[in-house]
Design goal:
By secondary structure, the chain is an alpha/beta fold. The chain is built from eight helices and twelve strands. Helix 5 (102-112) links the parallel strand 3 (88-93) and strand 4 (117-122). The chain is elongated, with a radius of gyration of 29 Å. It starts with a helix and ends with a helix.
């Protein structure tokens, strides 16, 4: 059984006669008869009742036609998905997208590339949805597996410490890593940019783990833990109960745009260029 046979069956039922089905399919009437016969042999059932003037599905034929319509609709959807790579661009991110550049990127993309719809997709995984097939490109802030993915650094972001608004550190303009060594650091090991290895051995803070930015914000605002994150998080998630302060002696975070090495989206280079420009211009 193949799709050609299913399309033939549906055409016969929709058009009402073999002659009209042949016209709709652009083949000969004899080809329609042969195709239907081969389908009935494959299924070992009679699908249509035929007279000199009329064609009607059998009881089994009605059920088969219903299934055939669903199968053909799924196949048509698959074809549209596979061939519409120029029409849609999905960019995944785990926590903070592009920070303050997120609105500008969306607006400028729409102006420069109206033929390609841009969709930002939040997926809290190590590849921001890339490995899961949820996006075509991913914004990540740590290196990915180079055997599977390519990436380009589009910008750098400062590391910020997040503390409760009533924490003594909130009154400071900036802080140092050593001032956090006695605190408990809340981290997301799957997607985050912060680990205890940022501190020298012997002065590393204790850690607790979270898997969601909203939980991270809630725990920090209660004063139980502190956090360290990319500057984009402060722009994407300002909170009255949280203060973000620069960490003076922490290296900046590289922001990368990543894609499948063997299947780059056609708009990859355009996205890299636009994001690089936004980060370069501040």
């Amino acid at each position: 059984m193949d799709l050609r046979q299913l399309r033939c069956l549906v055409a016969i039922v929709d058009e009402g006669t073999f002659t009209d089905a042949a016209i709709a399919l652009g083949v000969s009437q004899a080809a329609v008869s042969r195709t239907l016969a081969s389908l009935e042999r494959a299924l070992r059932v009679r699908l249509l009742r035929r007279t000199s003037r009329h064609v009607a599905p059998t009881g089994t034929g009605l059920r088969v036609v219903a299934h055939a319509r669903r199968v053909l609709a799924e196949v048509d959807g698959l074809i549209r998905e596979a061939t519409s790579s120029h029409a849609h661009l999905r960019i995944g991110y785990a926590w903070s997208a592009l920070g303050r550049h997120t609105p500008a990127f969306q607006r400028r993309w729409a102006q420069a590339h109206p033929e390609t719809d841009l969709h930002l997709v939040r997926v809290n995984s190590a590849t921001a949805g890339l490995a899961e097939g949820a996006c075509d490109l991913a914004v990540v802030r740590r290196p990915l597996d180079e055997r599977r993915f390519d990436s380009a650094i589009v910008g750098l972001e400062r590391r910020l410490c997040a503390v409760a608004a009533d924490d003594p550190l909130a009154r400071r303009r900036s802080i140092r890593l050593a001032e956090l060594s006695g605190r408990t650091l809340l981290v997301d090991r799957r997607t985050g940019t912060t680990t205890a290895e940022l501190w020298p051995p012997g002065s590393r803070p204790a850690t607790e783990e979270t898997h969601d930015v909203e939980d991270w914000l809630t725990v920090i605002s209660a004063g139980r833990c502190v956090g360290m994150t990319a500057e984009a998080t402060a722009n994407q998630y300002p909170r009255p109960g949280i203060a973000y302060r620069p960490v003076r002696d922490a290296e900046p975070i590289a922001v990368r745009l990543a894609w499948w090495r063997d299947d780059p989206h056609p708009a990859t280079q355009a996205a890299v260029e636009l994001l690089t420009t936004l980060y370069r211009n501040g």
